[in-house]
Amino acid sequence: MDVRKTVTDAGYIAIGLGVMGFQQVQERLGATRACVAGRAKDASERLTAHGAAIETKTREARDKAEEQVTVTVTRVQGLAGELTNRVEPIFVQVQATVADLPEKVVQAIEPMAALVRERIRPAA
């Protein structure tokens, strides 16, 4: 038994096993990279699809909200016009009544005031 040859053979075997291990690590690393790249691509595609769906739904919701606001503003403007048409005559009528009110109060109180004046005057 030659010790030198045995040690040399053992060294070659160790180097060979190291090389084989390194190659196996590289193969697994390549497979892992391919798997991660595939999953990243799938995730990116799904994210893009979801982003488009969200954008579509957002646009639809904004359009619907704008339409509802337009309808509501139109209704409010119509109601404001109708309210003005109904209230204006009443306002004019109340204004006319209030304008005549001091004169009517004076006319109503005058006979009573005259009566009170007669009663409180000393008989001369």
Distance between the termini: 170 Å
Can you count the helices?
1
Q: Give the overall shape, derived from the CA principal axes.
A: rod-shaped
**Unreliable segments of 5+ consecutive residues:** none
Cα radius of gyration in angstroms: 51 Å
Secondary-structure content class: mainly alpha
Report the biggest beta sheet as strand number plus sense, adding barrel if it closes: none
Mean pLDDT, rounded to whole units? 89
Explain what the structure shows.
The mean pLDDT is 89. The protein has one helix spanning 3-120. It contains one helix and no strands. The N and C termini lie far apart (170 Å). It has 124 residues and is mostly helical.
Features:
single chain, 124 residues, mainly alpha, 1 helix
Concise overview:
The chain is mainly α and 124 residues long. Helix content is 95%, strand content 0%.
Q: What layout of secondary structure does this protein have?
A:
Blueprint: H1 3-120
